[in-house]
Structure formats: C-alpha cells, structure tokens
Design a protein that fits this description.
It is a multi-pass membrane protein. By secondary structure, this protein is mainly α. Helix content is 75%, strand content 0%. Among the domains are: 84 residues, no CATH class; 223 residues, no CATH class. α8 packs antiparallel against α10 and α21 runs antiparallel to α25. The longest helix has 34 residues. The protein is globular, with a radius of gyration of 23 Å. The model has no long low-confidence stretch (mean pLDDT 83).
Length: 464
C-alpha cells in the first residue's frame, strides 16, 4: 500500500515537472519572439531564448538547478558552434571552459575544507567552545551562536552550518519550547548564516558567480579584496539583527541550564581524532593565509585550492565516499551560470534594452540601488545564483565603469533575501523545527531586506 502511494506521488511529481518544463519552453519562446530586435543575429536570438528558458526553469524548478547548468553548457555548444543552426558559427571553448574557471576550483577547495571540518568534528568543537564560554545568560547565548554561525558560514555552506548548529542545540530548544528565546536563537542562526556567506567568495554560490562574471570581463577580485567588501557588511547586518532579535524576543534574562553540553562532550571525545583535527586545522590556516596573501606571493587562489585537495585526500582524512558526497551539483550550477553570463556578454543582446533604460537618466547610485533591491526581491522567489545571472550582466552593461561595484553589490544584496521560510535553505531548516511561525520571519526579512541593499551599495561605492 505504501509502495503504491509512493509510486503515485512520483508519477504526479513527474507529470508536474514535464508540464512545467513544456510551459517554460513555451513562455521562453514567446518572450523571445516578442522581444527580439530585427537586427539580431542567430547567436543573439539563441542567447535571448536561453536566458528566458534557464531563468524560468530555475524559478519553477521543473528540473534540478544543476541540470539547468548542464543544459546551458550543452545548448551553447550545440547552437553557437553548429553551422547547420547558426549562419555565423563561433568557437565555443569559452562557454565550455567555465568548468575550469578559478572560481570553480576556489569553491572546490572550500568544499574540501568544509567536509573535513565536519568529518573531524572541528565545527562541533567550535560550537561547544562557544557555548561553554557564552555563559548561561540568554542574551549572551544568542550573541555567541549568531557570530559563530556567521564565521562558520564564511568557510562552510550556510545550509551545513545551520543544520549543524540547530542539531547541536535541539536539546535546549526542546526544553525552551515555543518561547521568545527559541525564536531568537533560530531566527538568529538563519540570519547569520546568510549574512556570514557575504564575507568570502566561497561563502555563497552567488559570490562565486559574481567573481566569475567579473573574471570573464577581465576584472579579477582577489579573495582578500572580496573580504574587504563583504565582511564589514556581514558584521554590521549580523550585529543589527542580533540587537533587534534580543529587543523583540528576549525579555527574560534568567540563567539557562546548559547541562546537555556535558553529555555531548562525553560522546564527542570518544569519536574525535586529535591528530586528524590538527592536520585539518593546519591545512585550513595555511590555505586561508595563502588565499589572503595571493597578491604578495603570486600563487593564484585556484592553485592554492589544490592544498586541501591533495593533503586531505593524501592523509586519508577524506576518502572516496566523502568526495562523492561533496556538493558537485553546485559546481555544475555555477559553471552553467558563468557560461550563460559569457554568452550574454559576447552577444551584447542586453545593449538595446540597456539603451532604453538609459533614457530614464537616473544617476549611478540610484540605478545601483534599484539593481540591489531587485536582487533582494528576486532572490526571495528564486535562487541567488539565478538572480545574479539576470541582474549582473544587465547592470554591468548599464553602468559602464562600475562593473566591479555592480557585481559585488548585487551578489551581497541577493544574500539579504530572508523574508520567507522558503527564501533560503537555512530558513527552511529552522522553520522545520515547528518552533517558528511564518510571520516570525518578517522581522529579519524587513530589517535585512531594507538595510542590506543600501548598506551594500554605500560600502561598495565607498571602497570602490
């Protein structure tokens, strides 16, 4: 009976995906037919269709996001380089070679480090250290967990960080129930995982995507320079949101018992491997130091990323099962997104529409602010990667001379989309605890959604 019910659900899901896929194709074809300019070449028409089709697939999730990335690579190869379909075929190497971009290798190095931190339980050790030193004051616990989450999310995915921290404090959450403190903790963790992701190129896929788009335009952003742009924004937003959550939810300052930590400590001490932890910690420090100082020693960040890849597998800390479990789908998504961005730039299909926007005669600050708020709104409804793929090429064409500022501001603003339980995976994780209501997300959503884009634009322009 259960098997039959499961089969029916799968069939319904399959039919729904097929209907969505066909619908996306029809919508993309119709929009391309309506919006194409008379003088468009075959490549420009193909690129315009791909833009609409890929974005609609990302929005509807008719197929997995990474599958859209693979489709983009195949589509561009087949349509741009095929003399039977294109009156002016061109070499397609630059659309396929995005998978060897330095951004991909930088992300891969981050994935290896994140996996090693989790496997050796160094991430949990950091969490326990934080809780042990935060004391029993509820306010201090919220502050400690939010800033621990923020720091961890700069090196690990926000999803993994949120899942790890929520799982570790579940005994405390079960004890608190639906209280103000539990809401402050859960909302704070979800918000900090998103703001923390702004801090480094590897903190969020949208950051890597933005860096890759800039690289395609011969504008390089180093690991350190991104941190200079991202960390002050992340730190400010985390601090402000922490202060607001404490004001709204934490009225009682009576000490909280952290007895559950002793049980966790006893279990974890038996499972931990101090020698492996020392190796991972050494690799982590060495890799980050070399990433930060790449401008001084001349070793590229992509080459530095080989350090965790080689040492962590050579020492057996990560085995074949761990490598298979890495989020390879994210790499396909980013590579496909970079290929789409390269196609939009090389075909210049956005130029005619940008000229129409320029007739509005808005100054650069206002346009950058509009793009950043648009990133926030769209990222609440679709993936951050899809959002930056739409807005960054448009903004770079519109604001000539401010390409770096556009890409970084839009990427940072896309991480401020936290208004709905489904806006981010971190939100979905904390919402699944059933200790939050949908309306609880509005506080952080409005706060970060309004302050974040403005702060990102002001800081990026100031530094730029």
């Amino acid at each position: 009976m259960e098997k039959a019910e499961k089969d029916n659900k799968q069939k319904k899901a399959s039919r729904k995906s097929v209907i969505y896929f066909i619908g996306c194709f029809v919508v993309a074809f119709g929009l391309t037919w309506l919006l194409r300019e008379p003088g468009f070449s075959d490549s420009q028409v193909y690129a315009l269709f791909l833009l609409f089709f890929a974005v609609s697939l990302w929005i509807t999730e008719a197929i997995p996001p990474f599958a859209v990335g693979i489709f983009i690579l195949a589509y561009l190869t087949y349509t741009f380089g095929n003399p039977l379909l294109n009156s002016d075929p061109e070499p397609v190497d630059k659309y396929v070679n995005t998978f060897s971009s330095r951004v991909i290798w930088l992300l891969l190095g981050g994935f290896f480090l994140g996996s090693a931190l989790a496997k050796t339980r160094l991430d949990e050790k950091l969490l326990r250290f934080t809780l042990h030193h935060s004391g029993t004051n509820p306010r201090n616990i919220v502050i400690a967990l939010m800033f621990t989450t923020m720091v961890a999310s700069m090196l690990m995915s926000g999803t993994a960080t949120t899942a790890m921290i929520v799982a570790a404090i579940m005994p405390l959450l079960n004890k608190l129930g639906k209280s103000g403190l539990s809401k402050a903790l859960l909302l704070g963790i979800a918000l900090a995982s998103c703001t923390g992701g702004m801090g480094t190129i590897i903190g969020a896929s949208s950051n890597a995507m933005a860096a890759g788009i800039l690289e395609n335009a011969d504008i390089k952003v180093s690991f350190l320079s991104w941190m200079i742009y991202g960390i002050p924004v992340a730190l400010t937003l985390t601090t402000v949101s922490c202060w607001v959550l404490l004001k709204v939810f934490v009225k009682n300052t009576e000490p909280i018992s952290l007895d559950f930590l002793h049980e966790i400590d006893e279990k974890e001490e038996k499972l931990e491997s101090p020698f492996q932890q020392k190796i991972v910690l050494g690799v982590l420090i060495l890799t980050i130091l070399l990433w930060l100082t790449s401008a001084w020693h001349g070793i590229t960040v992509a080459a530095v990323a080989a350090i965790p890849l080689v040492i962590l597998t050579l020492t057996g800390i990560l085995n074949s099962s761990d490598i298979k479990a890495l989020p390879w789908d994210t790499l396909f998504l980013v590579a496909g997104g970079l290929s789409l961005g390269a196609a939009l730039q090389s075909t210049h299909i956005l130029d005619p529409y940008v000229q129409q926007l320029r007739t509005m005669e808005l100054n650069s600050f206002v346009l950058l602010l509009i793009l950043s708020f648009a990133a926030n709104i769209l990222a609440n409804l679709m993936s951050n990667a899809a959002t930056v793929m739409i807005l960054i090429p448009l903004g770079m064409t519109l604001l000539t001379g401010l390409e770096k500022e556009v890409a970084i501001a839009v990427a940072l603003a896309s991480s401020t989309a936290v208004f709905l339980p489904i806006s981010t995976t971190a939100n979905a994780i904390v919402y699944s605890t059933e200790l939050l209501e949908q309306k609880d997300f509005r506080i952080g959503g409005f706060l970060i959604g309004l302050l974040g884009p403005v702060l990102a634009v002001l800081w990026v322009l100031l530094i730029g």
